[in-house]
Design a protein that fits this description.
This protein is of the alpha/beta class. Helix content is 34%, strand content 17%.
């Protein structure tokens, strides 16, 4: 079994699925089989909720103020397990802040609007904007919903902002200054916090 919970640069992360509708050009999982404290993040079989719950029970959360759903897949590809795990972690430690790092394509993945149910259990939503242009976004992310993914990602983000949660939008610093500024303007229009991530650091 691959690692379900691991640490990276002092943060605690949940790896609950390897499934993802994207194959992003700069995805960290293309660099290695694991990051941080994890020995392996690729599952032979997707973990059940009971296996995730057992990993949570075995982990010491006493000094953990925030934990992130990220790992080597898109967490909303396992939406039911994401929500059940978040609820369970909150039942153990109500004060913990939970963050979701997502490509923002949950509505397309799950065939319905999902922001409301996600925002009910997740405190911070961090959406990968990747690029301010739909065609270039499709080229960068190589997603399975070409022509639809960009607008769906933006709408999901707007819906999360409307729920009143803390919402971030991120780009990687290799897209160029012009595209970073265009991305910043999109983010400000939506009402999210804009973050530029370092490709070199993988964060």
């Amino acid at each position: 079994m691959a690692d379900i919970i691991y640490t990276l640069e002092g943060g605690t992360y949940f790896n609950i699925t390897n499934r993802c509708p994207c194959s992003c050009a700069f995805c960290i999982r293309k660099k290695a089989d694991a990051v941080g404290s994890a020995k392996r993040l690729w599952f032979d079989e997707e973990p059940t909720f009971d296996e995730i719950k057992a990993a949570v029970d075995a982990y010491d959360f006493s000094a953990v103020d925030e934990a992130v759903f990220c790992g080597y897949g898109e967490p909303t590809n396992a939406l039911d397990k994401l929500i059940r795990t978040a609820q369970y972690v909150k039942s153990i430690k109500p004060s913990i802040k939970l963050r979701l790092n997502t490509n923002g394509l949950s509505d397309l993945i799950n065939g319905r609007a999902t922001a409301k149910e996600i925002c009910a259990v997740i405190d911070i939503i961090s959406v990968s904007l990747n690029d301010p242009d739909s065609e270039q976004y499709d080229r960068i992310t190589k997603n399975i919903y070409p022509g639809r993914a960009f607008d769906a990602m933006l709408q999901f983000t707007r819906d999360c902002v409307a729920e009143g949660n803390e919402v971030h939008m991120t780009v990687v610093d290799v897209i160029g200054e012009d595209n970073i500024e265009k991305s910043r303007r999109i983010c400000e229009e939506i009402g999210a916090r804009f973050i530029v991530r370092s490709f070199a650091r993988g964060r």
